[in-house]
Amino acid sequence: MRFPALPFDNRYARELNGMYVHWRPQRVAAPRSLYFNEGLARALGLDPAVWGGEAGAPVWGGNVVPEGAEPLAQAYAGHQFGGFSPQLGDGRALLLGELIDTQGRRRDVALKGSGRTPYSRGGDGKAAVGPMLREALIGEALHALGVPTTRALAVVATGEDVHRDETLPGAVLTRVASSHLRVGTFQFFAARGDTEALQRLLDHAVARHQPDAVGEPDRALRLLRGVAERQAALIAPWMNLGFIHGVMNTDNMTISGESIDFGPCAFLEAYDPATVFSSIDRQGRYAFGNQAAIARWNLARLAEALLPLFPGVDEDPEPAVGQATAVIDAFPGLFDAQWRAGQRAKLGLRSEQPGDSGLADDFLVLMQAQRMDFTLAWRHLAAAAEGHEVPLRALAAEPQALAPWLARWRARWAQEGEAAEVARRLRAANPWLIPRNHGVEAALQAASDDGDLAPFQRLLAALQRPFEERLDDADLAEPAPPAVTACYRTFCGT
Ligand code: AMP
Ligand code: MG
């Protein structure tokens, strides 16, 4: 099959010579489409009849490199669990190139699981069906929940085995991102003292993500500030949805502010800020409640990497250090503003009053003490506003403990609107459905073990409409039994 040439415009390849190696995806035995994202394809100007399903599988499996693509493995470094690795890079991924989508936005199209590269270190360059479908599912779920995220265009089974603790069916994921620039990309060149490369990388990143700063002398500072703003706008909704990324290493934090690299990620069930699901996060560094602090720590690493590009830093580093430090120190405030605004919406409030943060904090304290399901506790506020408190009370170990808080909350929103209107706002702010860990695992297991894609497709379809309650999908919205959640572990190095 001949594929039409795609209008790739490969700016990374053109501008950032020395920051990647040209590389080809490894041929796979029997590419077979497991998933194709038709909506995303259309937004990229790709006709699903040409690029989707079995027709497109040779491309998204890596056997056919479309005309116009210039596949390359990107270099990057990163702090992993606090320790610096000066060379990571795309060990199993390849950027095919950049497309301008129908809204005029530049989008990276990249393969993951496409074979070894010069950055593979000890890895096999491969990916398994389960984790790649998981990345597709979580990305689409976050997208439908309104969270900035990289997204999957396709998942293709390779027809080959991948060897992990067990033998698993292999897959290649095609990922679409507003870029794959990471904090770790800057760290790679900073660690080598290569200021010339760092400067080119900065200009490239500014053109893509900080267009207001193009050509400005203080563009390094402005990019840093922009990343801080975008990360605050990302982590706040994560926190308000109960999302735990699980491996917020600096190589997994984007300059764009999109969620990326869902390895051991998971959603909270019963609320506990100390929740960790990742099997490799033994110290709880990336626990749910630490995510804003970790983002700040990662920003400080980005600031260090960018510092050589601040004007005048060679003569006198102090003003530059002061400016960068001010951005890092402002991050908690930026995050808080976004997180608190999200909480007010989740409480059904339109205005801001001094007691609102306390009201939200006390709800979280109650949730934790009463071991309430995080997602449903917020969601059932809507029914409670309409006078039906039973669903909310049923989540609590001691239902009567909710009464004083409910009275305070009711008095607060009653100043702003009728119950029906407040309930409508609550249902728009608090999803009914999130990817439940046990449901995700069951769907991935059916796909991986039995080749049965029906549960995955059903879950994916349901997650497209997370704010609508549907009787048919009620089982997907059920919390897992606490015993299941207590044992739930997610795995990295997938
Ligand atoms: P991650 O934790 O998935 O974000 O990956 C961290 C680093 O390990 C990146 O440089 C990846 O490219 C690399 N990596 C992860 N899995 C593999 C694999 N199976 N083969 C080669 N490199 C890998
Ligand atoms: Mg990564």
Kindly describe this structure:
By secondary structure, the protein is of the alpha+beta class. Among the domains are: 11-180, no CATH class; 184-344, no CATH class. Helix content is 44%, strand content 12%. It is built from 20 helices and eleven strands. A five-stranded antiparallel sheet has the order 2-8-9-7-6, with helices on both faces. Strands 1-3 form a two-stranded antiparallel ribbon. A two-stranded antiparallel sheet has the order 4-5. Helix 7 packs across helix 8 and helix 17 (437-450) runs antiparallel to helix 18. The longest helix has 30 residues, at 317-346. The mean pLDDT is 97. Bound molecules: adenosine monophosphate (AMP) and magnesium ion. Adenosine monophosphate is lined by residues 88-93, 120, 123-126, 247, 252, 261, 263, 492-493.
Q: What topology does this entry show?
A:
Blueprint: H1 11-15, E1 20-22, E2 32-36, H2 38-43, H3 48-51, H4 53-60, E3 72-74, E4 78-80, E5 83-85, E6 93-100, E7 106-112, H5 129-144, E8 151-163, E9 167-177, H6 183-191, H7 195-209, H8 219-241, E10 243-244, E11 266-267, H9 291-306, H10 317-346, H11 356-369, H12 374-379, H13 381-385, H14 390-393, H15 403-413, H16 419-429, H17 437-450, H18 454-463, H19 474-477, H20 482-486
Antiparallel strand pairs: 1-3, 2-8, 4-5, 6-7, 7-9, 8-9, 10-11
The site of adenosine monophosphate has 17 residues, from loops.
